[in-house]
Amino acid sequence: MTGIYLAGAFGISGFLFFNRSRVINYLLVSAFLVLQLGFTIYEYLHINKPELTYFTPDALGILLLVTLTIISIPAMYHSYMYLGSKQDNPGHTAIYFAAMVALLTSVSAAYLSNHIAVTWIFVELTTLSASALIYHRRNNRSLEGTWKYVFVCAISITLVFIGILFLSFSLSQAGADDLSFSNLLRKAPELNQFWLRLAFIFIFTGFTAKLGLVPMYTAGIDAKDKAPSPAGALMSSVLMNVGFVGIFRFYTVVSHTTVHSWANHIILIAALLSIFVATVYMTKVKNIKRMFAYSSIEHAGLVMLGLVAGGVGYFAAVLHIILHAFIKASLFFQQGQIYRVYQSKSMYDVGNYFKYNLTGSMVMLLGFFFATAMPPSGLFITEFMMFRSLFEAGYLWVLVVVMLLLTVIIWAFGKNIFKLLFSAPVAFKEEGVEKIKPVESLSQFILLGLVVYLGLNPPQEFLHLIREAIKNLPQ
Amino acid sequence: MTNVLLIIFTISLLYLGIAHRLLTYIKILTIQGVLLFGIAFIELIEINAVNLTFVLLETIVIKAIAIPLFLNYVMKRNRITRDAEPFLPNFVSLILITLIVITTFILSNAINDARISKIYFVVAISTLFTGLYIIVTRHKLITHVMGYLVIENGVFILSLAVGNEMPVLVNLGILLDIFASVFLLGIFVNRIGDVLKDADVDQLKSLKD
């Protein structure tokens, strides 16, 4: 099935690239969504059965794949809304959808691959397809965003590759498929410490470009800002999760070696710096999309803190990354409507959003509460668990610092959102403001509803999958 | 013999530090491509013939011929001035690159692994950091791409160290090489040059907070 899926999806992407007809475009995109849905269900029913030797749908892969499928449907819907409002030329539309399908496919494949080199190949493909999406508007600024994204991602993908080479040095004897995660896990205690440390540094640094942590987070911010809002939604949800998968799977291997506590220190430093950087920029940023992007960096940092703390933190980390994907996707979808009302992303030009788009304002308000982890958001539960695990693991000073920084983030986030919702905009002409249909916000409400449901009253099967995903970590 | 080639390769890095014309950079990249061809030939002679041909073709055709020609073309097409315009004087660059090499040399003493020869590690890591150094200290975007190509060469050397046991990793490295360099240069040739004349990092400063 994986083979059929990959061939089918890349085939659809190819057709979309050459197709100029609107009707065929709809048909192909629907075909892809059906294929994606079918593939997800099939993989869920065949959990832990390897296919094509390099793909195993394990619990973590399934969880993130389902997340991706849920987000991909509204992403396509909002893409049509976005492109419909802009009268783009058919060539650009074709490239947009082809890149989107290719991005979703390579992300899905990266989730399921059980071999570090295969993950690497698909992460490389995500860079390629994401850059086509960022460049969609074809102006100077989007060119700048694309160039920075491609350059930083090219360097970080090279760093991951160097890490993989060091990892192969750390094996006592090398063979053909020795770099699969299960094999690495089995041989974890025998790995050479010196090479493993180097491998960890390089692989971790490389994947931070996708996950959005210090040091490689910069390119992602510009990319999410310049990409069309549905593409930005994918980049700050499912594409971030690719980075998480890479780090998480490798961390699972490292946690069985003597390097474990050292690796924890590295992650802790990166996570704290990420939250700090996010805080500093959140107080300063004047662009709504960039604010959401910095908020993603904060959450990536929190997820990494969950990994460092261990215990219930592992569980919280996996749950957090899934719930965050839903929240951030819905905020980015909503941002597309804000842009259509005000024709601007700057904080200075927006205001009184309640007056122009009631349902959209509700999404923003709820999204703000949810993203800052206030109840009934599921993130409240996960952050609570993380703080508990940090406390139990003895990282008291980390906990204090993080809580202070989070308070500042809530203030900064709230300041901007309330400006958008309640203050009057300066020099804004009301006539000709586009009326947004309430139904366009439906998908955002569903995604936010999922966050409450999965956070407060998760189904047993879901909990079971998360426990399965973290079973290889030391308890 | 490999050692000699690797040492010449390291010397080319020092030359990179003091070069101030873009044409010199391109020539150094060509020389590095030829050196990599030699190293790959000696080191990988035992792997199967098809794979070996592939690796050798990649080093000689892509690294030593295609990319330099392409860079030349980009320079001519976009009328990039020939100066590399470093932020730091060349003398400082030379000292810093020497320091990079010495540091990796000292670091390599921590390795006690009979399987991996240290010289690969030293040359590869110093190439990597020299490439990063070039990227950080040069003004022009085209020089950044060249710095990235230097990093790629370092990665290639590193992958040769396990090339006999895991030829698949060498191939992956080549995949990265082709993907990234074609892609970066492709954007460059099509877009950057048309939009920004004499592309300079200073022109990429509009996205910020």
Can you walk through the features of this model?
The complex is a heterodimer of chains A (475) and B (209). Chain A is an all-alpha fold and 475 residues long. Chain A folds into 2 domains: 257 residues, no CATH class; 217 residues, no CATH class. Chain A contains 20 helices and no strands. In chain A, helix 2 packs parallel to helix 4. Chain A is globular and about 70 Å long. The model of chain A has no long low-confidence stretch (mean pLDDT 92). Chain B has one domain. In chain B, helix 1 runs antiparallel to helix 4. Chain B is globular, with a radius of gyration of 17 Å. Classes of the chains: A mainly alpha (475), B mainly alpha (209). Chains A and B meet through helix 5, helix 6 and helix 9 of A and helix 5, helix 6 and helix 7 of B.
User: Structural class of the secondary elements of chain A?
Assistant: mainly alpha
Average pLDDT rating of chain B: 84
Strand content of chain B: under 5%
Q: How would you characterize the largest beta sheet of chain B? A: none
Low-confidence stretches of chain B: none
Rg of chain A is: 21 Å
Number of helices of chain B: 7
Strand and helix map with partners:
The complex is a heterodimer of chains A (475) and B (209).
Chain A: H1 2-18, H2 22-45, H3 59-84, H4 90-112, H5 116-134, H6 140-170, H7 181-187, H8 193-211, H9 218-226, H10 229-235, H11 238-254, H12 260-284, H13 288-309, H14 312-342, H15 353-356, H16 358-371, H17 378-392, H18 396-422, H19 442-456, H20 460-469
Chain B: H1 2-18, H2 22-43, H3 49-78, H4 90-107, H5 118-137, H6 141-161, H7 167-195
Helix pairs in contact in B: 1-2, 1-4, 1-5, 2-3, 2-6, 3-7, 4-5, 5-6, 6-7
